[in-house]
Amino acid sequence: MKIEKVELFLCRLPLVHFFETSFGRSYDRTFVLVRVEADGHEGWGESVAEANPYYSSETTETVWHIIAGFLAPLVIGRTFGHPREVFPALRRVRGHNMAKAGLEMAAWDLHARTIGQPLSRVLGGTRARIASGVSIGIQDSFEQLIEKVDKELAAGYQRIKIKIKPGWDLEAVERVRARFGGIPLMVDANAAYSLDDRAHLARLDPYDLMMIEQPLDYDDVMDHAVLQQAVKTPICLDESIHTVRIARDAIAAKACRIINIKPGRVGGHGESIALHDLCAAHDIPVWHGGMLESGIGRAHNIHLASLPNFRLPGDIAASKRYYQPDLIEPAIEVGPDGTIAVPDGPGIGVNIVRDRVNSATLRHVSL
Q1: Nearest CA to 242 among 221, 223, 267, 225?
Q2: Which site in 119, 154, 160, 361 is 20 to 30 Å from 220, CA atoms measured?
Q3: What is the mean pLDDT of the chain?
Q4: Best CA proximity match to 265, nearest among 130, 136, 98, 128
Q5: Where are the alpha helices (DSSP H) in the chain?
Q6: How far apart are CA 38 and CA 331, in angstroms?
Q7: Are 126 and 153 in contact (CB under 8 A)?
Q8: Percent of the chain with pLDDT strictly greater than 90
Q9: Mean pLDDT of 185-197
């Protein structure tokens, strides 16, 4: 495929409900969509960078600047035999994985559409349906938290994740356990704690959690290794794992027992597959994280999560839970058994509704 054109769309969509983490509360999401063209076909990707630099140092503005000024010139007019060649072609630019992922994942969609295959098949997926979990943000009260968990369990989700931070952790978990018993439950701290909190975090052990996700700093490995020795609950790394090499070091240091894969965080599908394979070789289960993606990014996530070592339910929920309407048709839905069908059409297998994209677009450029 010879990429002839790259388009960027800076979009904003309101969330159906606010979403709060240790970083703060969000009522809408701003993000960058990437569209590529080659040989009469198109492909779509979505950068998961947010408007603010709280989860990552990348933002929508840095993504726009890096793709338009540096990455697009590296691919426009160039012929690629396979989309796995795109990430290496961007190596001249250091870092900026969220910018690279938006472009690289669009190239995978383009390739899959060109050959008339679903993206999952091109990626090496083995499942027709994936297990779906749900992430519940910090609420205004414990009563509201219980209501949210009850609603999501009734919708069929196979695993509940609740966000925690100092002051909203032990009691939140205790109340959910008291009300719902032994449901599959995990917590996500988004780097809200320090190693000095290890005794406090060890108090979560009696609640039989699936994991504690990213309790310590976003760039840390070794303190997590110390913490994992101090707690029985498995540590899962998220923000810390932004390259395959760091994942290798974390596994060697025994800093975690589980890894969350987000293609936007590691640079796209190619690096996600390498990370998936590394973890499989070391018997480290992985699951697919989420970044409040629109249906375009969410469809990409579904296809990637069909790979065999995604052994735990991921944060890939029904699109209507976040955006109504979303940017795609048909909507992504969760079945009564808590699973989502992997779209079987070419590429990401969903239709992008251009009128909705245009309505959500704040800025557009064609390169």
Answers
A1: 267
A2: 160
A3: 96
A4: 98
A5: 60-66, 72-75, 86-89, 97-114, 119-123, 142-154, 170-180, 198-202, 222-230, 244-252, 263-266, 269-281, 295-304, 354-360
A6: 27
A7: no
A8: 93
A9: 97
Q: Is residue 86 part of a domain?
A: yes
Q: Three-state SS for 140? A: coil
DSSP structural state of residue 130: E
Confidence of residue 326 (pLDDT cuts 50, 70, 90): very high
Tokens of 200: 């406090």
Please report the DSSP string for 235-269 in residue order: EEESTT--SHHHHHHHHHTT--SEEEE-HHHHTSH
Look up the CATH number of the domain holding residue 81. 3.30.390.10
**CATH at residue 203:** 3.20.20.120
Indicate the pairing of strand 351-352 with strand 328-329: antiparallel
Q: State whether 136 and 90 are in the same domain.
A: no
| 60, 51 contact by CB (below 8 A) | yes
**Tokens 């969609």, located at residue:** 109
Same-domain pairing of 61 and 187: no
Number of neighbours of residue 226 by Cβ within 10 angstroms: 14
pLDDT of res. 24: 77
pLDDT above 90 for 198: yes
Q: How many CB atoms lie within 10 A of CB 348?
A: 30
Grade residue 23 by pLDDT with cuts at 50, 70 and 90: confident
Residue 346 lies in a domain: no
Is the dihedral angle over the CA atoms 122, 127, 129, 133 positive or is it negative? negative
* Residues 6 or more apart in contact with residue 127 via CB below 8 angstroms: 120, 305, 306, 308, 342
Q: Can you give the pLDDT at residue 21?
A: 78
For the annotated catalytic residues, the residue numbers are: 163, 262
- 228 is written with which tokens? 């994992």
Residue 19 has a pLDDT of 76
CA distances from 314 to 19, 59, 293 (A): 17, 24, 13
Domain that holds residue 29: 5-116+351-366
